[in-house]
Amino acid sequence: MKTFCKIVISIVAAFLVLSGGAAYAYYKITGESPFGGVGEIGSVSDMNLLDALLQRNIKMNVAVFGTDKEGARTDVMFVVHYDSANESLDLLSLPRDTRVAVCDAVAEDLQEHGHAYNQVTKLNAIHSYSGQDHCCENTVLQIEDLLGINIDHYVKVDLDAFRKIVDTVGGVEVDVPQDMDYEDPVQDLYIHLDAGLQTLNGEQAEQLVRFRKYQTGDERRIEVQQLFLTALAQKVLNSEEILKNLPEYISILYQDVKTDISLSDAVKYANYAGKVDVSKITMQTLPGAGQMVGGVSYFIHDAQETEAVVDQIFYSTRTDTNEATQDSKQLTIEVANGGNINGLAGEYTGRLQADGYQTTEPTTYTGEQVPYTRIQVKADGIGEDLVSYFADARIELAPDMLSDDADIRIILGTGEQ
Q1: Among 399, 360, 403, which residue's Cα sits nearest to residue 47?
Q2: Summary count for the chain: helices (H), strands (E)
Q3: Given Cys at both, which of 178, 207, 255, 351 links 191, Cβ 3.0 to 4.6 Å?
Q4: Mean per-residue pLDDT pooled into runs of 10, the chain (417 residues)
């Protein structure tokens, strides 16, 4: 499942990065949107671009939706938490039948636009209640209410986009493991594939990944999906395919994949695309169990266990399980001059950079001066590897004293030379 999810996310990331970067470049050269008004260019400040180029640490939550054939309900929902400092991805899957009470913000929007809804409903129904203009935004609001988190972006993919991606790269060569024959007129699903090595177009690829009649059930289905997605990822990320199909990639992303990630956002995130450690991909499902309520089948989430899972995924600071302390080279460090020697913060910033640490621009500390150096950190187990750089350094747990741009702040003492 780690491989499966990593490939899916990699494909989405590749489209975001490639099409976003290319489209932004087109905009900068021509002054025009490459979509004829589709997609927001947005503005990029010098500081935002500098942050991205220096790969300063970011944390980001992205809601991912997969819609049914009619595009009405979000049958697949999960939230991805990305932490660049730890190079980690955490996925929390949200069962579509999760029982929720429509939150105030969503209810206000539905009432304002005259949409009918049930106050208590399934999570995937929020999308269909909201109409095309606010379906993703309202689903995000409901998930934020359910989990108690902020979501930065959303991405919605439907079957049409999936088929177009496959067709754009000229099909995908796959060794189909067995003859596949299955029909379900209700779902408008007609699967007829012969076993053997062949190049599948978009429609055939959909048949392959949706086929489920295996002797070992979903286990084999996942294996076949992994097989296909691996082949697709290899072709999508091939440099020749990228250059050849870039205009089509752009079109698919901003016309068939719905997202609030602007072109300027895509440019900023491009520098983080490769910063994912496979060993740090985790997947969890919202805690709870299925239950019949009033004759309707729901998934009832466990509020107490959900709070614990959310705290672990979205709010905790991860440390390496094999070491007592975390390597600060994964974090962003600010060096502030709290002494009396001009340029000392810049000197220490240079030393840390030379040893592979990520730093911000040096700053000046205007608070109380002390003889020892203070290493301010956000959580226990951080900063121990920095102590040896200084004559007298002490670690302080001070998450409220740190800016959003730094995970660690080093305030040089008056005793430093």
Answers
A1: 360
A2: 12, 20
A3: 207
A4: 46 49 45 43 41 62 76 74 78 86 96 94 93 90 95 81 81 91 84 94 88 72 69 63 60 69 64 59 80 92 92 70 60 91 90 89 90 88 85 85 88 87
Residue with tokens 């590749």: 14
pLDDT tens sequence across 311-324:
988 887 554 433 44
Write the single-letter amino acid at 266.
A
What's the CA dihedral at 147, 153, 154, 155 to 10 degrees? -140
Q: Looking at 27-149, which runs of residues are DSSP E strands? A: 59-67, 74-83, 88-93, 99-101, 120-122
Beta carbons of 263 and 41 less than 8 angstroms apart? yes
Q: How far apart are CA 222 and CA 230, in angstroms?
A: 12
Distance in angstroms between the alpha carbons of the first and the last residue of the chain: 52
Prediction pTM value? 0.57
CA separation for the pair 42, 44 (Å, rounded): 7
Encoded tokens for 156: 């919605």
Burial of residue 413, with CB atoms counted within 10 A of its CB: 0-12 exposed, 13-18 middle, 19 or more buried: buried
Chain centroid, CA 36 distance in Å? 28
Which residue, among 166, 158, 155, has the nearest Cα to 258 in the 3D structure? 155
Whole-angstrom distance, CA of residue 251 vs CA of residue 240: 18
Which tokens belong to 275?
């910063």
If DSSP codes are grouped into helix, strand and coil, which group holds residue 84? Answer: coil
Partner residues linked to 259 by β-bridges: 155
Residue 382 phi/psi, 5-degree rounding, is -115, 140
Q: Which residue has the tokens 């089509």?
A: 248
